[in-house]
Amino acid sequence: MxxxxxxxxxxxxxxxxxSAILSNTTEDDIVRDNSTFNETDVPPTFLQTTGAQVISGVxxxxxxxxxxxxxxxxxxxxxxxxxxxxxxRILFIVPIYAFDSWLSLMFFRDNYYIYFDSIRDWYEAFxxxxxxxxxxxxxxGEGNIMSEIRGKxxxxxxxxxxxxxxxxxxxxxxxxxxxxxxxxFCAVKPLMSVIILILQPLGKYSDG
Length: 208
Description:
By secondary structure, this protein is mainly α. It has helices at 2-24, 27-41, 50-76, 81-91, 93-106, 113-138, 142-149, 172-199. Keywords: Membrane, Transmembrane, Transmembrane helix.
């Protein structure tokens, strides 16, 4: 009977000790242990290796050299300002996009890429505006475009995305609607980037 009492006492002490340990273990400790396990035991992907960073860096600097040379040539022979100003602005997307992608790859573990991508998104929206303006410049402006297509029927085509416009004709209203639909991207894209920058420090944002 004495041995049974000692055994039961030991069991009670062990259970009470385990209960105390579990009660002192917070959810943050569990999350911290899981994050430590993930960082140390899970092997990195190829994009997180030094080799990937070196290879991407070579192509990034090659793209920077080519694009900067093209920009320099446009500025040196600035003979058509009405067109070249749009072209130079569009060309700047190459170094910005390439360098941003490289920095995002270098600091991928720290989630700094979210801030780099926001800068890229802002300039991307600016480039869309410049590309639309360049198209209008090539076609002679809004007035010249309308004089060429006004009254012509819109051909229904799945390939060109006009499948729902069969039977309609080109009008100034249609042209301006297309322009507004394109330019709304220039407003929505930076706005979404600002929202991401607000939600990221609060821990409310994750890539989907």
